[in-house]
Write a structure and sequence with these properties.
The chain is of the alpha+beta class. The chain has a domain at 68-179: Roll (Nuclear Transport Factor 2, Chain: A), CATH 3.10.450. 23% of the residues lie in helices and 23% in strands. The protein has helices at residues 68-82, 86-94, 103-120; strands spanning 9-12, 16-17, 125-134, 138-146, 152-159, 166-173. The longest helix is centred in the middle third of the chain and has 18 residues, at 103-120. The radius of gyration is 18 Å and the shape is globular. Mean pLDDT is 77; it is low at 1-33 and 47-51.
Amino acid sequence: MKSHLSALLLLALVGGPLPLCAQNMTVPTTAPAPDTTNVPGVQTVAAPPRNIMPLSTNHSPHPIQPPPEIAASINQFFKNLHGGDYPTAYQTFLAGTRLGQQPEKMSVFISKTQEAFGIYGALSDAEIYDNYSIGSNVLVLTYLSRHSIQPLRWRFIYYRPDKQWGLINMGFDDVLLDMLD
């Protein structure tokens, strides 16, 4: 059994799947590395992609329930995951979103959820950990799901272009160290 998954699942709408090790990668801030493009046996590595689940927070968490229409949708999603029907949980939750229109991403969500629940145990329940806004039209929600081995962190990002909130991104992982003071 795997002892630790550094970043179990993290999908960006535009960029597709991110590398599983993106959470723990750092970029040196010293002098630039010498040019090794023509040196035999030396491989250059691209910088890690931008991460929607940052390793540090600049504020204290606010476990305040989101607007009722969002809370009901997320609660139903976790209830469906608890029942073990992962495809239905994701199809229902992502219906009408750009993520829901991308079958390959839906498939990755489902398989990574099965993998995570296989490692950490079945979902018992979930609770809100943090709720904050970026401006007045972006809402970032962090939930913790409870399992027999350890919790998982879920991030949901909603955008309100007019009067209605819509899910624009989501992800989950098992990285909890950055949530500690």
